[in-house]
Amino acid sequence: MVEIDSLLHAGYHNPVQRPWQVERTLTKGTFMYPIFITDEDDALIPIASMPNQYRIGINQLEAFIVPLFAKGLRAVMLFGVPNDSVKDEFGTAADSPNGPVIQAIKLLKSKFSGLLVSCDVCLCEYTSHGHCGYLNADHTIDNTASVKRIAEVAVNYAKAGADNVAPSDMMDGRMRAIKQGLLDAGLSHRVSLMAYSAKYASALYGPFRDAACSGAQFGDRSAYQLPPGSRGLGRRAIERDMREGADIIMVKPAMFYLDIIRDAKELAPDHPIAAYQVSGEYAMIHHAATAGVFDLKTAVLESMTSLQRAGCNLILTYFTPELLEWLD
Ligand code: PB1
Q1: Does residue 97 have a cis bond before it (omega within 30 degrees)?
Q2: Number of separate domains in the chain
Q3: What residues are in contact with ligand 1 under a 6 Å CB criterion?
């Protein structure tokens, strides 16, 4: 005999009741689409490691975005993919006025009113050594010089028209430096700061590094991206970035770090929480569906639901084009 205090089925037996059991539902506005902008102006190059993703030249960008904007795309994150010839040890090309990112900001802001343009801020796509900051002679990170340069790049993206800047470099103190730079530039009222706070030294970035030609030429990023086993450093980074003025707190990667997303929601209950479903997660789901492990749409929607359940208000995902179709 089942006891009365064991009974749950009635609360969700009728399909009409099931949405009532859900705290938040996915909408098109939940998603931000990371896109790669190459400095080959007329190019539209498929990215082998990331099915259905492209390196997009500035002359192809408007045509690429038009159908997505019509389907409800309202936020993109830009990653520049410059030619190797412009790379140097200081990432000088990161904020070149004629570089892919600044040109893309200006085009998108002029052609798509209502599209939020976020810029990833990092040096790894622009440095000859492929690290995310300046290096000392012994190849350790020069944090102070790196923070100064990252803030400079972020402010220059903001001056070009970016609505949001998101430093993925993981240098200590870059949030405060960027926020101060935006304030000094008279932009702190309109340019938000999305903190890659709990960003882990993950195995899941490989396809991106192929797409952005941004792998480290030597060593790795484990001295500045967080150790995957550390919940404490994730919590401390979240609290630090809140203090330093972050407007949005991000956890990255996503699916392997749902506990950290939940921590973020509890530590920053009054901030929007973002998660970045990174290239390796995207490729994993894509290839599993192709191999017949599961139905792509069902699995992607379930992955997005898991991130929302963990506490996300915003999800960065390469599945954004499909989600804009599926959420019609
Ligand atoms: O999709 C992804 O894998 C994102 C990779 C991510 C972009 N913010 C970084 C990870 C890395 O290559 O270490 C790039 C670092 N600036």
Answers
A1: no
A2: 1
A3: 120, 122, 124, 132, 168, 205, 208-209, 214, 221, 278-279
